[in-house]
Amino acid sequence: MPDGPLIAGIELGGTKCNCILARGPDEIQEEVRIPTTGPADTLAAIEATLARWSGFSAIGIASFGPVSIDPHAGDFGSVTTTPKPDWSNTDIVRRIESRFGVPVGFHTDVVGAALAEARWGAAAGLDDIAYVTVGTGVGVGMIAAGRPVDGLTHAELGHVRPVRVERDDWVGNCPFHGACIEGLCAGPAIAARTGIKAEDLAADDPAWNLVAHALGQLLHTLVMTGIPRRIVMGGGVMVGTPHLFPRIRAAMTDSLGGYIGLPDIALPTFIVPPSLGNKAGPLGAVLLGRLALDRSAATSFTSS
């Protein structure tokens, strides 16, 4: 049985774009990888790929950010104030929509990954989850009732400020907030603090305890929202560092201080690694396309 409508999914990443024509992980018709250069060349290459494909009912785009996700905003569907050269204020959705005439779903890459892990991956069967990526930056995607948790904008929980470890006065690496979660835990922050890339840092290096302390507080914050039934943690810093998971679980439990008594939170199955690997982003874009298709169908039904 087909897993759903045929969707063109685009994971627009900082260094590469993954385009996929699929119904789901078991029915992928084609995948194309495109380097992310300037917006004109990158978007033209994406359009050329989509033009070659046929039969898709919608397009989903999971993008690096920050992005505008408010459909009522004048800049909806655009990359906004990104530090990536030449990409600030780049309109993506309206350009793609006008070219192909199908519904277009749009959100952050981390929300895309969250949707995919909730539907087909490490949180399959759960409608309420959080996905945390710890890599070049720190991002969080939250899903409730199977849909992204949206409001004024998308979540930027990587930039909350944690309580610091006593006598740790390192200034942090975030150009905006110094010692926020991203400024303490992202790959560039670990390298700046230790002089060693995260992937090369020994498992017994004491810097990992500081990383776990901050990430434990981020997870404390997520638990306190009352939303996630599972937290999936991925990204370059988490991959290949299985020793970090038990430290983060312990740091979160310590930070919660017994306030939340739900037994599942104490289990290793509450904080888990992802299972979709590099397919999470493009498959998440497919699900964003599905959501856009559902909204379009609901609007057509209401207006008919």
Write the layout of secondary structure elements.
Blueprint: E1 7-12, E2 16-24, E3 27-35, H1 39-52, E4 58-63, E5 78-79, E6 90-91, H2 93-100, E7 104-108, H3 109-120, E8 129-134, E9 138-144, E10 147-148, H4 181-185, H5 187-194, H6 207-224, E11 230-234, H7 244-256, E12 271-272, H8 280-303
Parallel strand pairs: 1-4, 4-7, 8-11, 11-12
Antiparallel strand pairs: 1-2, 2-3, 5-6, 8-9, 9-10
Helix pairs in contact: 3-8, 6-7
Major sheet: size, sense and barrel closure?
5 strands, mixed
> What's the count of strands?
12
Pattern of helices and strands? EEEHEEEHEHEEEHHHEHEH
Indicate the percent of residues in helices: 25-40%
Report how far the terminal alpha carbons are from each other: 30 Å
Radius of gyration: 19 Å
DSSP strand content: 15-25%
Number of helices: 8
The 3D shape can be described as globular
Structural class: alpha/beta
Please state the average pLDDT score: 93
Residue ranges: pLDDT <50 for 5 or more in a row?
Answer: none
User: What strand line-up does the widest sheet have?
Assistant: 3-2-1-4-7
Write structural notes for this entry:
The chain has 304 residues and is an alpha/beta fold. 34% of the residues lie in helices and 20% in strands. It is built from eight helices and twelve strands. The protein has helices at 39-52, 93-100, 109-120, 181-185, 187-194, 207-224, 244-256, 280-303; strands at residues 7-12, 16-24, 27-35, 58-63, 78-79, 90-91, 104-108, 129-134, 138-144, 147-148, 230-234, 271-272. The strands form three sheets. A five-stranded mixed beta sheet has the order 3-2-1-4-7, with helices on both faces. Strands 10-9-8-11-12 form a five-stranded mixed beta sheet. Helix 3 crosses helix 8 and helix 6 (207-224) crosses helix 7. The radius of gyration is 19 Å and the shape is globular. The two termini are 30 Å apart. The mean pLDDT is 93.
